[in-house]
Structure formats: C-alpha cells, structure tokens
UniProtKB/TrEMBL annotation, chains A, B:
<keyword id="KW-0238">DNA-binding</keyword>
<protein>
    <recommendedName>
        <fullName>CRP-like protein Clp</fullName>
    </recommendedName>
</protein>
<keyword id="KW-0805">Transcription regulation</keyword>
<dbReference type="GO" id="GO:0003824">
    <property type="term" value="F:catalytic activity"/>
</dbReference>
<dbReference type="InterPro" id="IPR000595">
    <property type="entry name" value="cNMP-bd_dom"/>
</dbReference>
<feature type="region of interest" description="Disordered">
    <location>
        <begin position="1"/>
        <end position="27"/>
    </location>
</feature>
<dbReference type="Pfam" id="PF00027">
    <property type="entry name" value="cNMP_binding"/>
</dbReference>
<dbReference type="InterPro" id="IPR014710">
    <property type="entry name" value="RmlC-like_jellyroll"/>
</dbReference>
<dbReference type="Pfam" id="PF13545">
    <property type="entry name" value="HTH_Crp_2"/>
</dbReference>
<keyword id="KW-0021">Allosteric enzyme</keyword>
<dbReference type="InterPro" id="IPR012318">
    <property type="entry name" value="HTH_CRP"/>
</dbReference>
<dbReference type="GO" id="GO:0005829">
    <property type="term" value="C:cytosol"/>
</dbReference>
<comment type="subunit">
    <text>Homodimer.</text>
</comment>
<feature type="domain" description="HTH crp-type">
    <location>
        <begin position="170"/>
        <end position="244"/>
    </location>
</feature>
<dbReference type="InterPro" id="IPR036388">
    <property type="entry name" value="WH-like_DNA-bd_sf"/>
</dbReference>
<dbReference type="GO" id="GO:0003677">
    <property type="term" value="F:DNA binding"/>
</dbReference>
<dbReference type="InterPro" id="IPR036390">
    <property type="entry name" value="WH_DNA-bd_sf"/>
</dbReference>
DNA sequence: CGATCCGTTGACGACTATCAAGAAGTGTGG
DNA sequence: CCACACTTCTTGATAGTCGTCAACGGATCG
C-alpha cells in the first residue's frame, strides 16, 4: 500500500486518449489552494470577482489530452490539482517532454496562435480555464495582472534556460540529480516535505524530459541509490538522503 | 579579404577582457535601425521622448564583457548593433552558450536580482541601456510597454523551448542545420539575404551552444557541405544552397 | 619569421543507445 | 482467490556515435 502524495494524486487506469472533460462554472477563488502561487495572485483580492466571472473549472482524467500541438490556442489555464506533461513530437517519433506542470503553474505563456506543445494529464487534474481573449482584456483593465504575468513568464524563462545547461552539458546522473531536486523543490512549495519526491510520471517521461533513454534513466537511479544519495520507497516515491551531494552533482544552481 | 556582413561587423582583435565601455547620452530613437524590432516598438512614437530620457548609449568592444553572471542586475539593454553571447559556466569549466544576441534583442527578461549569465561581445556592439528601476517605472506608466515586454518574453520562451528539443533529441547534423536556419532567419529580419549566413562566433561558441564539441561541429559542417546543402565562402560565411533540405533535417519548425 | 589562434581531419576509446530478457507490480476475468 | 495479460522498471550484452587526443594547415599579429 504505497500511499502516494495527496498533492499529486495517484494515476488512474489510463485511458489512451480520453476526452478532455467538461468545462464547469467556477467554484470561486477564495478557497483556492493555489491562489497564492498562481498568476492570479497578482490581482488584489477585491478584484477576484472579475477573475471568477471569466474562469471555468475543468477536470481532466489521467491519460487524457488537454490540448494538442497545432490546435488553435483559444484558452489558457492555471493548474489547481494534479500533474501534466508538456510534449512535442518529431515526425519520426522522437519525443521531448518540455516540462511537467503542477498546481500553481500557468499554461499560456506563448506568443503563438496555435499550441506549440501537446498537454497530457499524468494524474487526474483540475484546472482553471480562461478564454485567451478574456484574459487579454483582464490584462488591459488590470496592469498589475499583466505585470504579474510578465514576472512569472520571466521566471519560467529563467527556469527553461537552466534546462538548456542540463541538456547541453550534464551527464545522465547529473541530469537526474537536478531533476529530483527540482521536483522536490516544487513539491515543497505545495506543502510536501523537502526530502520526499513523488514521481507520478513514467521513466519514459523522465527520459524524454532529460534527453536520455529509459534504460539510462533507470541505471542512473540505481547509481544514485548505490551511492547512498537516494532511497526507493517505491519506484515512484523517492527519499533524498543526501540533498547536498545531489546539489553538488547537479551544479548547485538547482 | 572576406567582407563580412555589414550588419554584424567584423570581429576586432579581441582583447581578452576589455572594459565594458562608457555610458553616453542617448542619440535618439528616431533614427534607430532596430526601432521597429525591439521592445521599444510597443510604445507609440509620441512617448519615445520618455524612453530617450531614460536611455543611455553603450559601446562594447569585441571580446569585452557586458555583464557578469552573479553581478547585481541594475541595467537592462536593447542591442542596436553587433552580436553578443549569453554564457554560463559550470565549476569544472563546462560551458553553455545559452544564446546569441543581435540587433533588436533585449537583455533583461529575468526575475532574478543578479545576472544569471555572462554577456560577452562577439563583435563590437552598441546598446541602449536602461536602469532596471527606470524601466520598471516606465512600464508602470505605460501598460502598452509592459504588454509589449510580455509579448516578447513569451516569444523568447517559445524559442528557448524549441532549443530544448534541439539539445535533447536532435543529432549533431540536425542541430547544426537548425542553428544555421535560425541564424539566417534572424539576420534576414535585419535586412540580410535569406540564404547567406554570417557567423561571427567561433566554432567553440557554436559547440557550446549546441551541446557538442568543436570537432563534431566541424565534422557536421563538412557533412552538410559534402551533401550539397551548404557552401563555404569563408569558414564564417556560409551560403545555404538547399534550405528546404536543411529544414527537413532540423525538424521543420525552425 | 615565429607565435598564436582557429578550423579541419584522422585514430582511438568511452559512454550511452540499442537490443534482449527477466522481475515486479496492476488489473481483468474465470 | 488465482491465473493471465499487460505495463513498467531493471539489468545485462553489444554496437555505434560522439568525445578525446593528436597532428596539420591557414590566417593574423607582433
């Protein structure tokens, strides 16, 4: 009985490509767990009424696709529960997982008219939906919101640029160490313990995220375990025994 | 006598680490060649007076460092002439060139209080300098400017995410093909011909940008030449003979 | 003219991808 | 409840690609 984190709920039997789910009226920002993390935080509490009016709630089953690469980009999203992957494919099937998205993350920082990635739910997810147009109008009326979006877009840019170093110059073990630290940090922000990492995604997802094969990912896990830096509570639930050594491996900035 | 492009002027005898140059009063936005490209374009012509008041002009010699990783981030820049590289180093000397910056590009989309990269001039450069504070105030007074910054930050995010695919999943030849197309496209926006690419940076810079070694970069160049896709006018001046085939190699999006 | 830097090419070896098999966990149906 | 299919993850053997080491040619500069 491996009790996975309550933040990232357990993966349901994955239907290959389920429907993205229905849009429902929004329940209200007040009780929202991610209120303080998300883009919405830029708006003073008094103005959340407007946000709520524009927002819809969307639930997506594990395994289902939220939005497909190439489709017209009509909506933007804030994730309130669960985890998704940002995927891009090459014609010959090579795959990149450009990132994992969790509660508080925003989908919609793009200048493109069409989605440039496919977004697939790894666990059951709940999201706040906004029509792109509505969000743009909200931004026009509330410069603080736009400023907040700019700040968060810059933060994401910083993070993405760090990934460049990972992919360009780090060894497999170093990449994995950095990945584990990154996931731990983000989950900690959501209230999890600092040294426990929950990995709802498959080894394949991790491989395609780190530019490796699943075998190399697996061997790198084994190496970190043998060296006493991590411990497996389950294949997808890991304890970081020596975060400092992991940080040293990953090149500190992580 | 290799007459390099007039857009990216020839590399001067590189002083190892010259001084970043002096800040001068600004010459005015009216005649600025990059006016239509840069962040500033978001501001209506009537308001450029304010921009000019806040801006300074800065010249940086080839080989000199504009800003150092870890230093306090006091200024932001728009490049009006020349080319710089965005560099990050690992403790053991491994290097990443996170990007090449040219006329119209903006340095300053970051949420960090300190520079996260070192910026080094590849050719002699001219830049518009703004104190970070001034720019933030300008944004507060002119929401259009902030909206423009957000748009451009998103565009840069899109571009950076594309680099992830390059580094994670493309072969050396594919990476180089994509790189050449990217440089050609950006130089075309500045008025150069579509099939001529000027590469002021060294093979080492290219290697550290593509996550390869200089030998592999060199061999990949040779391969593209042997296959008839490119032609060398000089080691750093290349003609794209078959852009379509290059695009196919790079995975089209480029 | 020698020194230095840059780029190319060749020989070799290491590391990671590939191929293959097996172990472990999960859900389904009898 | 158990057998079976299926997926995921791990481990081993092998091969290929790219990194490393080395040498050379060309350009630039003092």
């Amino acid at each position: 009985m491996t009790s996975r984190s309550s933040l990232l709920q357990a993966e349901a039997p994955s239907r290959p490509t389920g429907s993205p789910g229905r849009r429902q009226p929004h329940a209200g920002c007040e009780g929202c767990l991610t209120r303080s993390l998300a883009v919405c935080a830029a708006l003073p509490p008094a103005d959340t009424v407007e946000l709520e009016a524009a927002a819809g709630e969307l639930r997506v089953q594990a395994g289902a696709t939220l939005a497909r690469e190439g489709a017209v980009r009509r909506d933007v999203y804030t994730i309130t529960r669960g985890m998704l992957r940002r995927v891009r494919l090459l014609p010959d099937g090579r795959r990149l997982v450009a990132g994992f998205l969790m509660a508080g993350d925003f989908i919609g920082f793009s200048g493109a008219s069409h989605y440039r990635h496919t977004f697939e739910a790894i666990t059951d997810c709940t999201l706040c939906v906004f029509a792109l147009q509505d969000m743009q109008q909200l931004c026009r009326r509330h410069p603080e919101l736009e400023a907040g979006m700019l700040r968060q877009a810059c933060a994401e840019l910083d993070a993405t640029r760090s990934s460049l170093m990972t992919l360009a110059r780090l060894t497999p073990v170093e990449r994995l160490a950095g990945f584990l630290l990154d996931m731990a940090m983000r989950q900690q922000r959501l209230g999890a313990s600092a040294d426990r990492v929950d990995l709802p995604m498959t080894r394949n997802d991790i491989a395609d995220h780190l530019g490796l094969t699943i075998e190399t990912v697996s061997r790198s896990f084994t190496r970190l375990k043998q060296d006493g830096m991590i411990e497996f509570d389950a294949p997808r639930l890991i304890t970081l025994l020596q975060p400092a050594r992991l940080r040293a491996l990953a090149g500190s900035p992580a």
